[in-house]
Amino acid sequence: MTQVLTERAPVAEESGRGRVLTISTVAFTIMFAVWMMFGILGLPIRAEFGLTDVQLAWIGAVAILNGSIWRLPAGIITDRWGGRRVMAAMLLFTAIPAFLVASASSYTILLFYAFLVGFAGNSFSVGIAWVAAWWPRRLQGTALGVFGAGNVGASVTKFIGPALIVAVPAAGYLGGLIPGGWRFVPFLYGVMLIIMAAITWFVSPRHDHKPGQGRSFVSMLTPLKQLRVWRFSLYYVVVFGAYVALAIWLPKYYVDVYGVPLIQAGLLTALFIFPASLLRPVGGYFSDRFGARRVMYWTFGTMLFASGILMMPYGYIVLSKPDGTTSEVLPWSVSVFWFTVLVFLIGIAMGVGKAAVYKHIPEYFPHDVGAVGGLVGCLGALGGFFLPPLFAYVGVWTGMPQSTFLVLFVLTAVAAVWMHVTVMKMLHRASPKLANKFEHDQAVLPGGPAESDTTETHERTGSIA
User: Fold this and answer.
1) Are the beta carbons of 157 and 269 closer than 8 angstroms?
2) What class, spelled out in words, does domain 12-430 have in CATH?
């Protein structure tokens, strides 16, 4: 009998981890849609309550804040209690403020409810820890990439939101019991959250893996002392925090700058969200194939190129002639087509880069995915909290909407420089005799091919110091 049980255990475990990955990904997709819903709902909300751009930015920002600050404890609790229990509870809890958002009667009340419903964003840490606990290390890159593709939930509201706002009458149904207009969207999400909580509880494996069970909180927080964790967090601010901020900000940008209708603005924003979400598994593959460090160079380089073009102010140069007349030369503007193409490139870079950052966590910290992944996700998502108001304030200060991408360019440049300096220091430590040797005839390799092979090995593994 013992032999039979031993033979069947791997099959049962494989089936269980498939269900864990599927359920956690679907749950995360719904929660992410809830977390990011103000990107589309913000425009009809602005019209109803007569809000300024700064007030509107704070609605999305407070939701992002609450979806960020609990990621570290959520990851630790998941490692101790199990993902099934924590994910089901989180889905049920988030349904309550979703219904409350649909009933908000003033800006202040809506701001408070938006903060509460933003709790949905913490589901990322829960899912990362849950999936990592069930999948073997050799498959974790792919599994975590598939789970992370749940970021595509940000486009759900972009697609269904405008249509539902128009289709459902403002008076709602059943005498207002089911609200109408923009309020129907959070109401619908509340129903979906309850249904998904039931699926999570009754369909996922009852036996759960709990890698943090029995460990003290202090021991689980020890890895956070390493500088590497905080550097990963900055990278994640660039590829995820800025992604969250742009997913919220772009519909408004399209409407205000290019004058496109809300439905079209949502669809154009989805062209940014899809690659930034669905390419995460591809980013995991590239990180395995070429090295995560190299992938991050590609990511930062692409973002600097695209945002560098988009941040340039629109206008022209006025030349004054000796006869007192003037002429306009070098007119510059970006059409909606090229704007969308460049934003699409940024989305591709972010989608690939998110996987490159997170691929390292189970590799460097296999027993602390919940804590390290929670902190990296927390700080990365906090970037999504600070950036929308920063976009608004810098836009007011400069008077140019293009300043949104100036902020993105500066942030990306800081992260890229820090990464490059770190890599150079690491390479100099590995080959001190090559320090300050830039020309080929200066480079003396005493070890010959062996030393060169060592450097190449570091590249293939994609290790980041």
Assistant:
1) no
2) mainly alpha
